[in-house]
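Input record (Table S2, row 202):
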Amino acid sequence: MKALIIVDVQNDFLPGGALEVPMGDVIIPLINILQEKFPLVIATQDWHPANHGSFASNHKNKKVFDKITLGGVEQILWPDHCVQGTIGAELSGELNTIVIEGFFRKGTDPAIDSYSGFFDNGKKKSTGLSGYLKEKDVTDTYICGLAGDFCVAFTALDAIDNGFNTFFIKDATRPIDKIGFYEMINKIKEKGGNIIDSADII
Ligand code: VGL
Ligand code: ZN
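Output record (pyrazine-2-carboxylic acid complex):
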C-alpha cells in the first residue's frame, strides 16, 4: 500500500511567511492533484512553542542562520516560524485537506528541533508516524511539500531508514537553498531512495 506524505505546507513557509520558501506556493495545486492517486494521505506540521531553541530570537547575540548546538546536534537558527496556534502554523488554505487522514505535529520540544516527520533531529523521540504507517500496511511512501532541503528531505531519509520504499517527488517540493537541495537529493539516492517527478504518478 502507498501513502502520500505532505510535509509542512504551512503559511509560514509560503511567500510572505516568516520563513518563506521561494515559489513554495506553486506546488500546492500539484499536491492537490497527487492526493487523488493515493489510498492514504497524511500531512505533517512544524509546530513550535514560542520559546523554541531553533529560533534566533531565543538566543542572546545570535542571528538568523547562525549555527549552535541544540539537543546535542548542530542547529541552524531560524526566524520565529510555525508558532503553535498562529496563522503561520496553519496549513495553507489552498491545500485540499479533505482526504488527509492523519496529521502529525513535530518540533514541539523547545530543547531540540525536528525536521523529519518521523523523529527529532537527535533521533530520540518518535512522532509515531512510522508505526501508524506500518499499522496501515504502508510499504511505499511518496514525499512532497516544504522545504525540500530540510523537512521534506529529512522525512524521506527517515522513511528509507524505517524500511519504506521511498519516492521523493522532486517537482512537488521547493527548497530554501538550491545547493543544499541537490546535496540532500544525493543523500536520498545514496540511501536507496527514488527521485521522481509527479508525471511518474499522474
Ligand atoms: C523547516 C526549517 C525550520 C521545514 C522547518 O519545514 O523545512 N525548515 N523548520
Ligand atoms: Zn521549524
